[in-house]
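Input for the complex:
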Amino acid sequence: MNTDDKRLDEISKYLSYVLRHEPQAIDLCLDTEGWASIDSLIAGAAKNGRHLDRTTIQAVVANNDKKRFAISDDGQRIRAVQGHSTTAVRRKHAEEEPPEVLYHGTATRFLESIREQGLKAGSRHHVHLSQDIPTAIAVGQRYGKSAVLEIQARRMHQQGFKFFLAENGVWLTDAVPAEFLGTLKLSF
Ligand code: HQG
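Predicted:
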């Protein structure tokens, strides 16, 4: 990563922090769909000693590898597309029929508990699922040695469980009972 990419990556992490988890840290107001005023974001960050400007924010949004953020059509507001834990936000994601299987990347040390309890959303609003295995491997690696679980998504859907597709391609569901966890693909 060059210096510029590193800087944008660091700002992306900061935006995730305030737009997904702790808007109150900079007195930022998010609506239930997650939108915040860009001017207020810049002002709030400045009060906390962090300089942000519109050009940099636009660069972070445009270059973000996972398209984590979106800017409103009028250019005045920004939001995180998914991954929230703040109770200020309650996004209405598009409900979709999932593919036959989806994948969840986790760390091997969580497997025993997941086998017992199924997948839980934890502090976030949903369990996050990927359509492909490489993405799931990368997600799991954030917490240690990665393991990938195969989710019988279509079967869950047929039994009435709801699935949502975020604008950036991340699949979301409220929880995955253990009976829908298929073959474990271990140790990447
Ligand atoms: C685990 C990133 C024990 C779960 C990623 C995960 C994703 C359990 C951790 C997005 C469990 C929660 C979300 C149970 C679930 N017992 N552990 N019953 N049920 N877990 O970060 O899915 O880069 O809240 O497997 O790419 O890892 O930030 O969820 O390991 O899309 O944009 O509990 O965050 O996106 O961790 O990641 P997280 P996640 P960004």
